[in-house]
Amino acid sequence: MLRQLEYLVALARERHFARAAAACFVSQPSLSAGIRKLEAELGVPLIRRGSRFQGLTPEGEHVLAWAHHALAERDALRQELAALQGELTGTLRLGAIPTALTVTSLLTTPFCERHPGVKVSLESLSSRDITRRLTDFDIDAALTYLDDSSLRDMRCLPLYEERYVLLTPADGPYAKDTEVSWAQAAALPLCLLSPRMRNRRILDENFAADNATATPAVESDTVAGLYAHLVTGRWSSVISHAWLHMFPTPPGMRVVRLSGPARGPRVGLAVVAQDTQPPMVRALLAVSRDAGVRDALDDLLSSHLGS
């Protein structure tokens, strides 16, 4: 039955029979037959059938929730048995909001060093997708903003607080200053993340607190998109200090301290709250507690600010 439950989970995720079959490495007829067998065993229809996938029945939604738990328990058992044999094996499925992707190597590198038998699968996900994927046991853990109300049923481990700085051309009006206000930064030709990104909404709140509104000439939905413009030396941007870990200061640019709150929202690991965590999650939490992410990023920021 577990294999048939895998088919149901894949179909609910892909919402397409052919894609679900490909995800399960079986033919479409095999997947369809497996789900029909599951329906026969349970005695209820699970899928609203038509010329294409039309969704799950109410009974199917209930079985799907049970399937997520059953498959997660199976995976946890496999991990426990592998750990009993002396080495953790399998794949760590890690999600991260785009603005936290830059620091994931501070966790994954020591994790892989401590557990060489484990592979890491890293995905860039929105906050909404992270909550859903954690609830569905599609990922093991996620690096995200911890003040998100949707995480109230999750177990969270704070890692660092975002701190914001101005990245500006070395020949710009504030490049020689040690600190600038948010209102001064708002008046510069700016390149920022798009408003649908949580990071941008936080920045807009800080601009508003200084009675200013940022009107960037360029908006991007990726950090890489911002830096692609910053390297031209034409634009300034307000960035999280965590980005400095992955992206060096572009030639001809300077990092300048912003006045106002010293620390922004907390970023950390979120996992499903369980009485007994799977070995993979326990291992990641243990590595994360020892990783010193906050201190590493604060030292990096100090080096860029020259203090």
Protein traits:
single chain; 307 residues; alpha/beta; 5-stranded mixed beta sheet; 4-stranded mixed beta sheet; 11 helices; 11 strands; elongated
Describe this structure in words.
The chain has helices spanning 2-14, 17-24, 28-42, 58-84, 105-114, 127-135, 182-186, 198-209, 223-230, 279-290, 293-305; strands at residues 90-96, 118-124, 141-145, 154-161, 164-169, 179-180, 191-193, 218-220, 237-240, 253-258, 266-272. The protein is α/β, with parallel strands linked by helices.
The rounded Rg comes to: 23 Å
Distance between the termini: 61 Å
Widest sheet: strand order? 2-1-3-11-4
Average pLDDT metric: 90
Helix content: 40-55%
Which ranges are low-confidence, i.e. pLDDT below 50, for 5 or more consecutive residues? none
SSE diagram, text form:
Elements: H1 2-14, H2 17-24, H3 28-42, H4 58-84, E1 90-96, H5 105-114, E2 118-124, H6 127-135, E3 141-145, E4 154-161, E5 164-169, E6 179-180, H7 182-186, E7 191-193, H8 198-209, E8 218-220, H9 223-230, E9 237-240, E10 253-258, E11 266-272, H10 279-290, H11 293-305
Parallel strand pairs: 1-2, 1-3, 6-10, 7-8
Antiparallel strand pairs: 3-11, 4-11, 5-9, 5-10
Helix pairs in contact: 1-2, 1-3, 1-4, 2-3, 5-10
